[in-house]
Amino acid sequence: MIGPAGLFVAKLAAVAAVVLGSSVLARRVGHAAGGLLAGLPMIAGPITGLMLVDIDARIVRGVCLATLACQPALVGYLLVYAHAARRLRPAASLAVAAAVFLIGGVLLLLLPLPEWARIALAIAGPPLALRWMPVLGAQPLRAVAQPRGELAIRVGVAVLIAAGVMWGAQHLGPGPAGLLLATPITGVVLPLFTQARHGGEATAALLGGFLRGQVGFVAFFLVMLAALPGWPGWVAWPLGMSAAAGAAHVARRVWRP
Questions:
Q1: What is the pLDDT of residue 6?
Q2: Contact at 8 Å (CB) between 218 and 123?
Q3: CA 189 to CA 139: how far, in whole Å?
């Protein structure tokens, strides 16, 4: 049986793996592809699966619902960041987008919406936001210059952020935990570094890929809501991750960069 310390380390390792993988993918084939991988539930998914190991499935379902409830705030964050990155400096872009996420997430949790309404908003968010993303020039698959030392910094910063987020998730109720689980950890680290080195257009392309990945993010949590607590976690979780991959593939083909 894995102890609490082991679970915590496993969650941080998942964060590090996604940031590293997204950064390497962006370096090899372009920003949009790296953003697509980062937008998938590659962090929230493993964290949810690990929660099922030692937390009651009904509580985990509540966290999943709260995460979906905060999804429109995450979509707003990506949309605002993509536009701000073309006009503002990196720190200012992040600050404006983070304010949108925090204010929007808190308001969404406080609104007395029924479950079906929260789910409907989460489903509608990514495709609507994709219509309002900045219009960019062609973003061909191509290698992106990226120093190796920067990869280590990206991973280190992401792990520090994730540690704070998961500590809060362990000590708060389902609502705040859902907001923390929806926190765009890779959506903070990757665009911040990308804008500083490659500019606003590249950052908007990255965030457009991230937004397409969010279709898979929503699909994962929809499956978890439908499956829990009736189905065991070892059945629900792989189905959710499979749905995420399939939905993101469809989104990439339907809403091309």
A1: 77
A2: yes
A3: 21
**pLDDT tens readout for residues 79-112:** 999 999 999 999 999 999 999 999 999 999 999 9
**What pTM did the predictor assign?**
0.85
Higher-pLDDT residue of 62, 257: 62
Q: Please state, in angstroms and rounded to a whole number, the distance separating the CA atoms of residues 221 and 72.
A: 14
Rounded to whole angstroms, the Cα distance separating 200 from 103 reads: 24
- C-alpha–C-alpha distance, residues 19 and 42, integer Å: 9
Q: Are 223 and 191 in contact (CB under 8 A)?
A: no
Percent of the chain predicted with pLDDT > 70: 89
By C-alpha distance, which of 222, 210, 221 is closest to 251?
Answer: 210
pLDDT of residue 241: 93
Give dist(CA 26, CA 35) in Å, integer.
Answer: 8
What does the chain come to in residues? 257
